[in-house]
Specification:
Layout (H helix, E strand, L loop, with lengths): L3 H10 L2 E3 L2 E3 L5 E3 L7 E3 L2 E3 L10 E3 L5 E3 L2 E3 L5 E4 L4 E3 L2 E13 L11 E3 L2 E12 L5 E3 L2 E5 L6 E5 L5 E3 L2 E3 L4 E5 L5 E3 L2 E3 L6 E3 L7 E3 L7 E4 L6 E3 L5 E2 L3 E3 L12
Parallel strand pairs: 1-4, 2-5, 3-6, 4-7, 5-8, 6-9, 7-10, 8-11, 9-11, 10-12, 11-13, 12-14, 13-15, 13-16, 14-17, 15-18, 16-19, 17-20, 18-21, 19-22, 20-23, 21-24, 22-25, 23-26, 24-27
């Protein structure tokens, strides 16, 4: 039979946090690494600014799921530390510093990785900062209008094997997307009205590929302040269905 302490531990490791509001603290919610498989759904995190160093929501637990949450007007939004997480249908607005910070996520295979799906990150100091990760994927997600002092890009990546599909990265004061990690894949995404380059592949971004899925689902790079796509890395490819300076009639850039 299972001991009481063991059973309690298993329940703790399967916890669900739903429909809660975390407001006006230094940090709102912290999940430690032992709380495996935690699900956080339909929660609100707002005005957590009492400690400018803290995040409204921080998770170090493997397999965290964040779904349908709203984070707004916090010092920092969401941080994922050493956890293979899924962030789905979540909105982060008006972070004073960073909206999302991801670090040290080393998924063993491409089938077990952190995913950001159908989410929106808008306005604030710095958008998405992704460090030392592997196989992280960003799909159907909007990143726009980050203009903090010293903000390098709407999305800044130093992890490897990062993929973007149907992402919209627009209106940021620095680069739209700045990649300094190998083997990035950018497919059928939009980069427009950013202050510097739409896409900047720095020296560490070797073997990265920018492409469109089909002629009707291109990658579009338009109206950026310096270059549409800037490549300073070896063995990169700008492949089929990439439109630089041309907007398909059916496409509209998103600013809210």
């Amino acid at each position: 039979t299972q001991s009481r302490s063991s059973a309690a531990s298993d329940v703790y490791k399967r916890q669900t946090i739903s429909g809660c509001t975390f407001r006006q603290n230094g940090g709102g919610l912290r999940i430690y690494d032992s709380a495996v498989n935690t699900q956080v759904t339909s929660c609100t995190f707002e005005d957590n600014t009492r400690d400018i160093r803290k995040y409204a929501f921080e998770s170090a637990a493997p397999n965290t799921t964040v779904e349908g949450c709203i984070l707004q007007r916090n010092a920092n939004g969401l941080t994922l530390l050493n956890s293979d997480a899924t962030v789905r249908n979540t909105q982060i607005y008006d972070s004073l510093q960073r909206a999302l910070f991801v670090t040290s996520i080393n998924a063993p295979t491409a089938n077990n990785h952190t995913q950001i799906i159908g989410s929106t990150f808008q306005r604030g100091g710095e958008g998405l900062v992704i460090e030392f990760s592997r196989f992280l994927s960003i799909t159907n997600t909007i990143v726009s209008d980050f203009d903090g002092v010293g903000s390098i890009a709407g999305v800044r990546v130093s992890g490897t094997d990062t993929s973007f599909s149907n992402a919209t990265i627009t209106g940021n004061s620095g680069h739209g997307l700045y990649i300094n990690g190998e083997r990035a894949s950018i497919v059928s995404s939009t980069f427009g009205d950013n202050g510097v380059d739409g896409v900047h592949l720095a020296f560490g971004a070797g073997s990265s590929v920018v492409s469109g899925q089909t002629a009707s689902e291109p990658t579009v790079v338009i109206r950026n302040g310096r270059d549409g796509i800037s490549v300073n890395a070896p063995n990169c490819a700008i492949a089929d269905h990439v439109l630089v300076g041309v907007v398909p009639q059916q496409l509209s850039l998103i600013h809210i």
